[in-house]
Amino acid sequence: MVCLAGMIGIGKTSATKLLGERLGGTVFYEKVDDNEILPLFYTASEEEQELKRYPFLLQLEFLNSRFQIIKEAVKHENSIIDRSIFEDWYFAKINHDLGRISDTEFSIYEKLLDNMMNEVDEIPQKAPDLMVYMRASFETILDRIGKRGREFEQDKNLYNYYYALWKDYDDWVFNHYDRSAILVIDMDHMDIVNTPEDANIFVEKVQNKLAEVKID
Prior knowledge:
GO terms for molecular function: ATP binding; deoxynucleoside kinase activity. Keywords: ATP-binding, Kinase, Nucleotide-binding, Transferase. The protein has helices at 12-23, 37-43, 46-52, 54-73, 85-97, 103-120, 138-148, 159-167, 169-175, 196-212, and strands at residues 2-6, 26-28, 79-82, 130-135, 181-186. By secondary structure, it is an alpha/beta fold. It has a five-stranded parallel sheet, sandwiched between helices.
């Protein structure tokens, strides 16, 4: 099992598709297009966010879908996951730090996550074999969010949210995540969609790391 991790807009979905094609695994994509709360999370005013609790609802929606995905992914011999349940807590924490999720909501979220992880730990494959952390500068992140063109992501008022997520990602990866081996890939000068050579380098890095941790 390989999980892709990294900032919004970094290219995880494209990387998941690429690895699925090259490594022959079953792919599991983050559920975005059919998520009714996601556009509301990005576009609602602060007053609407406060009244309708969209950040908390969105986090529960993503947690539920990621829990479903990890339970399905472990049934396959080879699976590639576009952001996993192991990364979900980080997004909840940032929204809590920003005051978008209350202390009570965050406590409820963590209790629910703990229950889910206890169930995951009962599964024979308890964790990924490798997490691929796709890393880039903040300028690259903003550029790629702009280029992928999701209208609800383009509001300049989201800058502080994106920066809050970006600035602490390394801390989460290197000081909190302990479920598997980690491969860090610098995406600042890598375009795996439009540059075949970059795609080949990306896949080779993943294959080499899998061989290093003795996963075929």
